[in-house]
Design brief:
Length: about 290
């Protein structure tokens, strides 16, 4: 008689990820640095320069059952010093605060939502020109803190598959634009020339619809790509002229503290300028998460 023995494999139950309840906070500080120098005999052309860019991202998010409240503060500031130039030049300057409340509808991925955001800058912005009499570079102030500043808010519907894959549709959105009157009180000012503001005024109200989409995904354990798209249409004036703000952020983690990043941003806002504004930042530097 042959006896067959079978050994049962012990089955280990899979660990279930604990759902977040309450507040969750996280932040990241980054510092990029670049230096280039050329001697007098260098034939390839170039200007010696030193530049740096610092940024802080801080998130504080709340979740309880079907309610979520996401908050994000983002700051960036970059500056470059060119040899033989009288003035340093900004390469980046942003101050952003976003907040959004969502209430899930049943067991679906859709949520009732309400969002608000604030956008401005820290420092003065200048236009640089060459003085024909002295041949030296002069600068003309064009912007500063809270000029301009954008405040936008409205209810809508949020589709959220996960924290880094969301689409928020807000068909009823109000937007306020704030500027300093010194820019709209200059002689010969034409209504709308400065971020759509009329002569002698400091605010502009708009009513329209907004869409915000975010997609972040890993290519590998150390390489991530994030896409952020914001659209806005002003129903009151030229609704077909949709404001576009798209950002591509690629981050390669070298080790715990060192990372390389590439940022591409394109903005179209015909109240500011009738063309696309393009920004690109590429560098390697310090990353510290907290």
């Amino acid at each position: 008689m042959i006896v067959l023995k079978a050994k049962l494999k012990e089955i280990t139950p899979k660990k279930v990820k604990k759902e977040q309840v309450g507040w969750l906070t996280k932040g990241k500080f980054s510092l990029l640095f670049n230096q280039s120098s050329f001697n007098f005999d260098w034939q390839g052309g170039g200007t010696s320069n030193i530049s740096g860019n610092a940024g802080v991202i801080y998130e504080f998010n709340y979740k309880k059952k079907s309610l979520t409240w996401d908050n994000k503060i983002q700051t960036d500031y970059g500056i470059t010093f060119l040899k033989d130039e009288d003035f340093a030049r900004k390469t980046n300057d942003r101050l952003i605060f976003n907040t959004r409340v969502g209430q899930r509808i049943g067991e679906s991925k859709w949520n009732y939502s309400f969002f608000a955001n604030f956008l401005s800058q820290f420092d003065k912005g200048f236009r640089f020109e060459v003085d024909p009499d002295t041949d030296r570079t002069i600068r003309i102030e064009e912007t500063h803190f809270f000029s301009p500043a954008f405040v936008q808010a409205g209810p809508g519907l949020l589709w959220k598959k996960r924290d880094d894959l969301t689409i928020n549709i807000a068909p009823v959105t109000s937007r306020m634009i704030f500027v300093d009157k010194e820019f709209t009180n200059v002689p010969g000012y034409v209504d709308g020339d400065y971020f759509g503001i009329d002569a002698g005024e400091s605010t502009r109200f708009e009513f329209g619809g907004a869409l915000a989409a975010n997609l972040k995904f890993p290519i590998s354990k150390s390489f991530t790509i994030e896409n952020i798209l914001n659209l806005y249409s002003n129903y009151i004036e030229d609704p077909a002229n949709v404001d576009i703000d798209y950002t591509l952020d690629m981050n390669l983690k070298v080790n715990r503290y060192i990372s390389s990043s590439f940022v591409f941003q394109s903005i179209y806002d015909d109240n500011a300028t009738g063309a696309f504004q393009i920004r690109q930042v590429l560098g390697i530097g310090l990353d510290y998460k907290f």
